[in-house]
Write a structure and sequence with these properties.
mainly beta, five-stranded antiparallel sheet, four-stranded antiparallel sheet, disordered N terminus
């Protein structure tokens, strides 16, 4: 079984490749608590030990869109923010605060996700949210003369 381990003091994004549980420790690894993940595949991003976002999906069909979840209790519970999120799997998320954030999808993306999201590797994109991730605005790059 694949597992995802989240350390509450880690601020990095962590891949969740086909894991279905989060494992937490609050005593340096002496004991562990498991919590089910709301998605089967995705990536977790935390801005601090309590606030984080999970971009992922349950349906392996590459045509289905991703879902975006948020936690405010360190991953103990997750709230669904967007059911048809425009962000491809593997997008990089960065939040300025709980409402304002950016997402970047690099050209090529993460090859692992290509089988799960048809948008992976198609184009690069920059997105912006001002409602915590419920909706996203695509920022079109402009080339100046």
């Amino acid at each position: 079984m694949d597992v995802f381990v989240y350390y509450p003091n880690t601020l990095n994004r962590l891949p969740l490749p086909t894991s279905q549980y989060f494992y937490f420790t609050h005593d340096g690894g002496q004991t562990w608590v498991s919590k089910p993940s709301p998605v089967k595949i995705g990536t977790v991003y935390f801005s601090n030990a309590q606030t984080g976002w999970l971009l992922g999906k349950n349906d392996p069909d590459p045509a289905t869109l991703t879902q975006l979840y948020q936690t405010k209790d360190g991953g103990e519970s997750w709230s669904l923010l967007a059911t048809d999120c425009p962000l491809p799997l593997g997008s990089e998320l960065q939040y300025v605060d709980e409402q304002n954030g950016f997402a970047y999808y690099p050209v090529g993306g993460i090859d692992f996700y290509k089988d799960f999201d048809r948008r992976v590797g198609q184009t690069t994109a920059l997105y912006w949210t001002r409602d915590g991730g419920k909706s996203w605005i695509t920022i079109e790059p402009r080339i100046l003369p």
